[in-house]
Amino acid sequence: MTSPLSFAVLGPVRAWRGQSEIDPGTRQQRLILALLLARAGGAVSVAELVDLLWESDPPPSAVNVVQRHVGMLRRRFEPGLPTRAAGSVLIRDGAEYRLRIDGESLDLLRFRRLVAEAGGSSGEPAVELYREALALWRDRCASGLQAGGRAHPEFVAVDGERLAAVRAAADAALRAGCVHAVLPAIRLAAEYEPLDEALQARLLLALAADGRRAEALKAYADIEHRLADELGIQPGGELRAARDRLLDHDAPADGSRSRRGVRPAFIRPGVPPSRAEAGFGRPAFIRSGVPPSGAEAGFGRPAFIRSGVPPSGAEAELWPPAELELSQSTRAEPPAQLPADHRYFTGRRGVMATAEELLAGDRRTTALVIDGMPGVGKTTLAVHLAHRLAARYPDGQLYADLRGFGSGESVMTPAEALRGFLWSLGAAPAAIPAELHAQAGLYRSILAERRMLILLDNCRDWDQIRHLLPGTGGSLVIATSRRRITGVAGPAGAHPLHLDLLTDAEARELLTRRLGDAAAADPAAVDEIIARCGRLPLALALVATRTVGRPGLSLSAVAGELAEADGRLAGFGDARADLEAIFSWSYRALTPEAARLFRLLPLHPAGELSTEAAAALGGLSLRSARGLLVELGTQLLVQPGDGRWRMHDLLRAYAVELGEEHDDAAERDAAIERVYDYYQLSAYAAHLPLQPQVPLPEPEPSERGVTGRGFTGRADAMAWFAVEQRVLTDIVARAKERGRPRTAWQIALALQNFFQDTAQFKQWAAVVSAGLAATGDDRAAQALLHRSLAGACYFLADLDRGLSHLQHARALFDRLGRRTEQGHVENNIAEIRLDQRRYHEAIQHAEAARALFRAEGDVRGATNALLAIARAQGWLGRHAEALGMFAEARRQFEALGDLHGVGTSQAWLAHTYSMIDDVPHALAIWQQAIDTFRGARARYHTAEVLVSIGDFHSANGDPAVAGQAWSEALAELDGTDSPLARRIRDRLLWHR
Q: Are 752 and 795 in contact (CB under 8 A)?
């Protein structure tokens, strides 16, 4: 008796004969089957099938091709059917085809039956029927078969049935009080249709009914943003009604009705809110003549400040003395002290937008503190921003250059600034108190009645500006500083804004506005000038001014002068003095120790460095280096938050010139040697937690007293290699020239496992090749580097070249009598033979390797050889033997603490289980392998496991899950162009 056929279209198209799944064939055959299934036994014309496969441009043979595909599908459903036989499953009726199916052989028909039954029921029985119906869906109808990102209208219509069923299920569950039964289905459908307001409204109500009101409110905010961003509309009535039901029923404990900062309805004039409600807007309890108490006094201008009633204690600082008189002329003519706006201001749109956002709505922003390096344009931005905002502050603008980075005597004191401000605000000189705190109290009391804008330029630190900030009222301070003023985080309403270098586009716009047609006519010269100026606004402005002042000088000539200066400030001609003057203000303020370190920093191979590297450079203790870097970082360095320090190119050029002027060649050379010592010792220490297979000789201790960095484990070492990769690569290239060939090839070998686990195979080959060129006559080093190069070739799929390097290495190790290293080479040859499917040869080489390792007592090496043997056994069909060997290898690697080995054993164990159709074991152990490799930060091997999972699901008729696994694998490789990445892209392309 023939087993019955069954089909699925509520997700990927699938077919079964009894319990055995049938391969539906090519994509075109799956499309034909999908449309037949979506019709659920209804007829589909040949013309419809032609349109389905080719849309608007069918070939002349289209009808014949359709007929061939139909014939192939028939024979899949009825094996042994003669070529031209009609069959009994996929039948033809004139120019139409249809599938002969019953109500239980197709998931779509079962879904429709259950939905109809649910519609005729009520209460929990109806909800259970809906739940059962919706559980039949695994994805969109005929998922994975969209053409050009568009689904066929027939499939869209079936998807519409699902959405209607979800909405009906939600309504029934809400009425019956058992929404948890269908909440997963509602969530899933809402993810598929994020702009379906009726569906999203039901999701909100379902979440709330399930006790997830906070999640429901967040979901509403997300929907509101999505509708505005994607469609440019506000939520409709149904969605708003759902939100209102959330808010009206058991309002949240914090009293909030909206994430948008809308004033809650419960704050009504004359009605005091509770303490929890007091955070919204200006509290209603602050009413004229009614003094608040305790914590309430912090809102707005305290009501206790009443005419003629002197406060006491802490209140005194806010109290204006009774004898203070402000002239009517001063009140009538507000101060307008802002410097002129810069006529060529450009760019900075991101920072401007952030400032506008901080000042928008109900936020109470009292200060914006702009920080950045010298010459980055802080003052220009602050002045421009102040002019844009001036109209919002009708009571005028105050300005002071605090000269925070001038010489000691030129720095403006807070008292000096306050006296100037109080005079500008109309206070008689005799009425200004002598004490700083009293001056600040008077100043704040005056500002409490006004809306003013105060610009404080060149602030040194928090102590210099804290007395100049308004206490209450509607005034705003804009301050600038070369330092990140940490005290800004203290008072509410003060926000730091960091100003970075211009972007390339902003720099180009600046030069174009200053130079006009000349910039537009020579974009290559403009790009060169931008690069030489390092996108520093001060440098760009100086070059532009110099160019305008020399009409006969072309931009290409200016660019040439800068290039000839080779990174020196001399390329700026007469503008050099201006740059040096600006930089010198900060340099002269340094202690002698910090100044020395500043001059040595350009000797580091990269534009950024760690505290440990700076300590080695300066021959300092870590503690001393940290203190000096903090001193430099307040003015001349940038620490973006990753623990490293960066120096702008022009400041670097300034430091180079200072170093050549003040430090002798011997001191500078010693600094470079210390840095090389640090990186050689640190690279060796970092490679050890990665369980390297290529043994790296331990470097000699530093003759200059330098120690390497310590590492807490594999993750710490991988992170260090990632941030120091550029520096290490540069040292490998330069070390031989400095007479340090051993440093070059040792660092190259230390990088091997990092390159392997991050899939940087081309970089691996390039760096190790540079290391090999530095080995000279050192045969042991040559052998190690040949073997390392073979590994890079293996991962680049250049097996012949890899084998050649291994043969070189084997000959050298044999001559040196290095048996352990010979074992590694034999095992590597086994790996190549496995890739070449020469399994018996692979076993021979792996057995030879295992014998060599055992003789030398190398457990890790012997276990790696066991892995190679097990893989060959599996490919030869000896699955029981392979499973036992993989399990043994995993136990050995776990005992060794070798995560890479554990993950590799797990991956191959899972693969072998998949080969014998033990799916539960395969999937569970594959997931273990992913977790292990991710824990080891081995992204390439994580990707390999995900590819295996995707291949398994693809072969088992689940293309959606396969595509997801392949996409995750490609994400792990992070844009690399390895052979594996190309194979994954091919799979995804085919999958679409």
A: no
Strand order in the sheet with 397-401: 397-401, 453-457, 476-481, 367-371, 494-498
Beta pairing, strands 608-610 & 494-498: unpaired
C-alpha closest to that of 140 among 115, 165, 123, 160: 160
Give the H or E element holding residue 506: helix 504-515
Tokens coding 520: 């537009």
How far from chain centre, in Å, is Cα 43?
Answer: 51
Q: How many domains does the chain have?
A: 5
The type of residue at 387 is: H
In a domain, 51, yes or no: yes
Is the Cα torsion angle 166, 171, 172, 178 positive or negative in sign? Answer: positive
> How do strand 90-93 and strand 20-22 relate by DSSP bridges?
unpaired
Strand partners, 14: 8
Q: Would you call 400 helix, strand, or coil by DSSP? A: strand
The answer to whether 685 touches 709, Cβ cutoff 8 Å, is yes
At residue 812, the pLDDT reads 93
Query: Does residue 348 sit in the same domain as residue 425?
Result: yes
Number of H helices, E strands in the chain: 42, 13
Q: Which of 607-611, 649-653, 863-867 has the lowest mean pLDDT?
A: 649-653
- For 428, the token pair is 């008689």
Supply the pLDDT for residue 545: 64
Q: Tell me the CATH number at 91.
A: 1.10.10.10
Residues 64 and 98 in one domain: yes
The DSSP output letter for 281 is S
How many CB atoms neighbour CB 478 within 10 A? 24
- Would you say how long the chain is, in residues? 992
Question: Does 65 have pLDDT greater than 60?
Answer: yes
CA distance to 677, 745, 794, 911, per residue, from 782 (Å): 22, 9, 18, 37
Residue 501 near residue 648 (C-beta atoms within 8 A) = yes
Instruction: Return d(Cα 932, Cα 618) in angstroms, integer.
Output: 40
Mean pLDDT highest for which of 263-267, 291-295, 298-302, 701-705?
A: 701-705
- CA-nearest of 4, 6, 92 to 49 is 92
Check whether residue 351 and residue 450 sit in a common domain: yes
Residue ranges in 398-503 assigned as alpha helix (H): 414-424, 436-448, 462-465
Do the strands 494-498 and 367-371 form a parallel or antiparallel pair, or are they unpaired?
A: parallel
pLDDT 10s digits, 7-17: 999 988 998 88
Contact of 911 with 922, CB cutoff 8 Å: yes
The CA–CA distances, whole Å, from 103 to 5, 114, 371 equal 12, 11, 71
Range of the domain at 508: 504-564
- To which H or E segment does residue 856 belong? helix 839-856
pLDDT attached to residue 279: 30
Q: Are residues 543 and 516 in the same domain?
A: yes
Nearest partner of 484 among 372, 562, 404, judged by Cα: 372
Torsion angle of the four alpha carbons 130, 133, 136, 138, in this order, in degrees rounded to the nearest 10: -40
Residue 118's CB: how many other CB atoms inside 10 A?
A: 23
- Pairwise pLDDT comparison (346 vs 699), residue with the higher score: 699
470 vs 316: which has the higher pLDDT: 470
Q: Which residues contact 418 (CB under 8 A, 6 or more apart)?
A: 436, 439, 440, 443, 467, 468
CB atoms within 10 A of CB 268: 10
877, burial (CB in 10 Å: exposed 0-12, middle 13-18, buried 19+): exposed
Which residue bears the tokens 């002239």?
A: 327
Kindly indicate the confidence band of residue 571, based on its pLDDT and cuts at 50, 70 and 90. Answer: very low
Assess whether 415 and 509 both reside in one domain.
Answer: no
pLDDT digits (tens, 9 = 90+) for 765-820: 999 999 999 998 899 999 999 999 999 998 888 898 999 999 999 999 989 988 88
Of the candidates 467, 472, 463, 462, the residue with the CA atom closest to the CA atom of residue 496: 462
Residue with tokens 């009080």: 177
Beta bridge partner(s), residue 645: 609
